[in-house]
Design goal:
By secondary structure, the protein is an alpha/beta fold. It has a single domain, classed as Rossmann fold (3-Layer(aba) Sandwich). It contains 9 helices and 4 strands. The protein has a 4-stranded parallel β-sheet, with helices on both faces. Helix 2 links the parallel strand 1 and strand 2. The radius of gyration is 18 Å and the shape is globular.
Amino acid sequence: MTILFEEMNREQLAKKRDAIVLIPVGACEQHGPHLATGSDFFIVRAVAEQVAHKLEGEFPIVVAPTLPFGFSQHHIPFGATISITPDTYQAFLRDMCNSLLASGFKKLFFINGHGGNNEMIAVVAREFALTNGARMGAGSYWTMAWDQLIAAGAHEVNRLPGHAGAFESSIMKFLRPDLEQVGVPTREGVFSADPKSFYPAYMVEDQENWLKINGFSDNPAQATSADGEKWFNAVLEGVEISLRQYWEGSR
C-alpha cells in the first residue's frame, strides 16, 4: 500500500482525510566541495517515507511531495544554490496547507531537513493552525530525534547536524552511496556539539562566518557509512516517537 500522495488517486486520498499529511521540506544548496546539493531534501524525504511506512499500520499517514527548495541565502556566495525568499517560501507553504485543507485534510506536519527553514515552518504552522482550525505540527528531524542522536553518540565527533560535515556526509554515504563524494575536505581540530540542546541561548547570523569556514562544518573526512546508518536509524526512531505523540494528541 502506498503512502505517497502523488501515487494515489482522488478516490484513495478521499478515504484518508483523517490521516497525518507529512510535508517534507528541504533545500538545494552548496554542501561543501564534496556533497550533492540535494543532500537536505534527499535525507528528509527518506526519513519521512521510511517513518511513514513504519507507522502506517498504527494510523493513517500520507507523505506529500518533498519541497526541494528552502531559504538558503547564506549559501548564495558559494554558488550552486537555489534560495527562496522568506515571504515567498512562507506563502508557498500556506498555499500548500490551504490546498490540503480544502481537500479535507486537517492534520498537517512539516518535517524539515534544512536549518534555514527551521523558524519559518514553525511560524507558518502556528499561524495556519490558529487561523484555519487545522492541527499543525512542525519539526526538524534532528531536533525531533535529539535524544536518540545523543544516545547514539552523534554529537561526539562533529557538529549536530552541522552542514556538510561528518554527520550529513555519513548519512549521505549510507543513503546514497551512488553519489560519490569527491574532493572531501579535511579540517584539523576537535569537534563536538552540546548534548543539552540544538538551540543556543541566543541566535547570531553572520554571512562572514560561512565564508570563514568555506561553507562546511567540522571534518567531513571523518564520515563513514557505518556511522551514517547508526545515526539515520536514530533519526527514524526519534521521528517515529514524535509523530506517534502528535497522532495521540489529535484524538
